[in-house]
Amino acid sequence: MIFLKQQKKKKAVAYYRKSTRDMQEYSIPIQREEAQKFAAKYGIEIIHEEEDKDSGVTAERPGFQRLMNDWVHKRDATGFDYILVKDDSRWGRFQKKDEAGHYEYLCNENGIEVIYFSEGFPMQGEGAEMLTGLQRTVKREMSSEFSRKLSRDVFKGMLKISSEGYSVGGTACYGMNRLLLDERKKPIKVLKHGEHKGLANDRIRFVPADDEKSKAVQDMFLWFVEELKSPEDIALALNKVGITAPNGKEWDRSKVIRILGNETYIGTRLYNKTSNKLKKGHKKNPRSEWVICPNAFPALINPERFWLAQEYLFWLLPSKNRKGFFILQKMKRNIQADIQQLLKQESIDSEYAHLLPLSFAVKRTLPDQTPYWCFFISRPMREHKNVLCVSVDIDKSTVDSAFLIPTSAFSVLGMCLFSEADELHARTLQKEEDTEKIVLSLVKSVM
């Protein structure tokens, strides 16, 4: 009798991935069915399955990590021969050129072969290995380029939607809700946390929640701007009445400051403040790259009060705009030195330079790119009829303009806020050639 030696049945672990952009609801069940048919055809036993429902541009996927850590690198404890995956794109649309091959190499080093079951087993024979390698290289590059193109197209769509004032994802900020609109931009309902729109043509925009959180935001701005409470005092007041912060915990200084600096509360839609394209890491984008859509939805905070708060924050938190703060200090010293030199030429005691009613401010811009200024004067300056207000352009580190502003134009808090579109700008703006005469006139008024 002749006994035939039975061949040991091969074993495999299957890996499935559904792309975040995959519109097919049953993508993973379909992959599972195809893998099982392939395994049955070649007498392979699938002993385990892993899956992911996420982007494949990096290896940082839960299922993929389990596959590598718990199975590939611990093969001795399980023993299997293949990893079955549908195709290169499901293995991963890696952006680094050799990353897909790197993970295949790790599998091969452990005696495991990655099989793309939609293509079948690799060809055998002379030259087949080189041909298979070339095919896989081309397909991996195609998968990577597909992700890059998809990322560019999706990003353009998000920019377009955001420029029209609508939300393209994420949660509403504290005190605001997400309102679902139909394709005619008619309100449907307020979305709950975790709810998403159902149709591609629907839109989402932010609206004030009109609840205790909205009231808390309004109180913060009122206390900070009108009652001059510090962020620390505001946090204590909110904690005392039991109103929780956005994370459900108590308020502190930094959380209050984040609320006070959020432009969303005046109805401005902001997008692209940060980016993480193809999961290459988060980075902050300059304001010039932001999508800024003013008046995109109802404001929770009066714009004038909001911009007053920004000026207070500028002086309260020099580190928030350290460049502007230190350039402003430098320009003050330079201008004082220039004034002392001018007085010396006019045979006037240079000590009078320190008695001049001078105020400095950094030129800033509103969301619509209109320049604006906010000057402050001390109590002693109120004794003068006019104040010479000097504007500094921090990007160029130069003085860009000067204003001769009546002290009567300053508020009881010693502040004067105006934009280039205001009448006060045109009325008080001075010509460069007249500044020396103005300085001398002010000096003589204090002598």
Structure notes:
With 447 residues, the chain is an alpha/beta fold. Helices cover 38% and strands 19% of the residues. The chain has 13 helices and 17 strands. A four-stranded parallel β-sheet has the order 2-1-3-4, sandwiched between helices. It has a three-stranded antiparallel β-sheet with strand order 6-5-7, with no helix packed on it. Strands 12-15-16 form a three-stranded mixed β-sheet. Strand 9 and strand 10 form a beta hairpin. Helix 7 packs across helix 10 and helix 8 crosses helix 9. The N terminus is likely disordered.
Compact summary:
This protein is of the alpha/beta class and 447 residues long.
Secondary-structure map with pairings?
Layout: E1 10-17, H1 27-41, E2 44-52, H2 62-72, H3 75-78, E3 82-85, H4 88-91, H5 99-109, E4 113-116, H6 128-163, E5 176-181, E6 187-191, E7 203-208, H7 212-225, H8 231-240, H9 253-260, E8 269-271, E9 274-275, E10 283-284, E11 291-293, H10 303-316, H11 322-345, E12 358-362, E13 364-365, E14 371-376, E15 386-393, E16 398-406, E17 415-419, H12 423-428, H13 435-446
Parallel strand pairs: 1-2, 1-3, 3-4, 12-15
Antiparallel strand pairs: 5-6, 5-7, 8-11, 9-10, 13-14, 14-17, 15-16
Helix pairs in contact: 7-10, 8-9
